Amino acid sequence: MKLARKIVSLRVPILVLTLLLLIPSVFGMAATRINYDMLTYLPEDMETVVGQDELMKDFGKGAFSLIIVEDMEPEEVSRLRKSIEGVEHVDSVIWYDSLADLSVPMELLPDEVYQAFNAGNATMMAVFFDSSTSADVTMEAVDRIRTICGRQCFVAGMSALVLDLKQLCEREEPIYVALAVVLAAAAMTLLLDCWLAPLVFLVCIGMMVLLNLGSNILLGEISYITKALAAVLQLAVTMDYSIFLWNSYNEQLSQCPTDHREAMARAIHQTFTSVLGSSITTVAGFIALCFMSFTMGRDLGIVMAKGVVLGVIGCVTVLPAMILLLDRPLQKTRHRSLIPNAAGLSKGILKIAPVLLALSLLLAVPAWYGYEKTNDEVYYDMGQCLPEDMDYVIANTKLREQFNMASTHMLLVSADTPEGDVRTMLRQMREVKGVKTVLGLESLLGEDVPPEILPDRLRQGLESEHWKLVLILSEYKVASDEVNDQITRLNEILKRYDPSGMLIGEAPCMKDLIETTGHDFTVVNAVSIALVFLIIFFVEKSLSLPVLLIAVIELAIFINLGLPHYLGSTLPFIAPIAISTIQLGATVDYAILMTTRYKEERMGGAARRSAVHTALTSSIPSVLVSGMGLFAATFGVALYSNIDIVSSMCMLMARGAVISMICVIFTLPPLLLLCDRLICATTLGMRKCDRPRQTHSKQENASDKEEALV
Questions:
Q1: Which residue range(s) make up the domain with 118?
Q2: Last residue of a domain, one of 156, 187, 221
Q3: pTM, entire model
């Protein structure tokens, strides 16, 4: 209580300090770099990542793009190539005039090379950059190339995807925040007993969001998914902390109506305990993401765990100061709560408890099956998360339709590998299913022509002191089963002739990503369940309650993540991993709230049915407010966003909040009734509650009569 009273007495300095901290936070937020390339989060010791580093170190090449040029004469294409080569950070551009003078007919090229770079009215150039795929300078170079090329040219490649993603995110992110704020305010206005309070809560949460985003400068950079979701998620999962304080303050105010400061001090003291217990499980869910070897999970986990901690701090420091400052208008705008008394609903639920429990058990089987199938049906191709009218998507479609090409691999072969072995290896690679073309020094002019006749710059671009660079054009789409099988076969051939050789590029990286995240899904689930189990174990001092509560929320997660399979929709790979742990951490406190009250009632002498009825009746309003707050903050973003990763994750969070809310209200009470004796036997301090059945029966009959009177 001393600390709470100190916070109240220092309310003005606390508010002033918070406002001052917002200034560096705004600058920190603006200075934090955003990473739009998901492949940079792969473990650094993976061969594909090592190979990309070698490519940059030995050849001075990082990013790679293909440019499709339509309806241009060779002379125009040649001038365009030279203009593109003049763009800053473009290392080299390979087209026909890189090999020979335009006066030499193109038809003299080997058929494989000619067909790879020409199709009908279109021709294709390969562009290498001297910077990495997602570097800011690379995106600026791609943007400049698009400006130079005009409407007759289309730029494909990961850097083009990253640029489109960045531009789309920057356009949409302010609208995400606006939608979350407006819909959250609407939900709180309907569910709370004050018209002005939601605005006060949102201002306080907004300040904590700014502090969180500003402090990200300490991390150096964050992913675009983290940036897109951080504000919305922080608002969604910390909103109910403000509601806890408001309800507690008004409760204390009724006990000491003349001393508002004392009432607030008591409310802070009471709220801190409740909020701390609620927030720990949410933090645990986000911390579990840090155990992913795909480090984007760590990125999102750290930022969101930090946001929850700041939300708790703001709830017990800044919000009390704001409420006391605006106390008079807040009290004047209070009204009767629109949430009806839940006693009747609770009684009805308990009457059909066996039916509800049976339905839950029956639902668990198809839910689990759908959940397993959804995890198998995720997509990894980041191009799928963009709208079809984006430049990158259009360029990739043209590559596939006009050139029968969907992905490009790069092969690094040791310079010490005998020339004969290299030729044999490349010949075998050409025979691999789905390989359209293999382009190395020997294939550009044919096997019988010595590479020395090629221009020095071109030769040096494909051969260094340590490595030979070979391009492999594939007919198969990135992240498809076909291309993954192709990569496996190509690697088998490569290692046979050059054990130190490396196959790199977008598709090989995506194959590594698939293998990495498959392992991560298992690890994150296990860690999140273990952490939440331990938290509930220490909070409830029980062996059985953690199992029961986690089972209820896991059922909600199975239903939520199983629905995409039955609805025929496909999720981005990161969504099931992140949502399974976020939903567990953010909504298990609904179950903890009800169970804690049930324990209090049972330990206070109430019969089994009476204790569950009281716990359910008192918990329904809080669960409704918390669940609908999370739903409102994320649902609007899910409907609006044109970025499928953001849209899918927000829809899963919105739907997950509602499903968890329904499971806690309709499945947990029957489960508590069924397992009452087990709970009493395995929970510290509850053994005395497990009385003979006759005594319980009398108490429950009396309880039923009391409920009938109510």
A1: 62-156
A2: 156
A3: 0.88
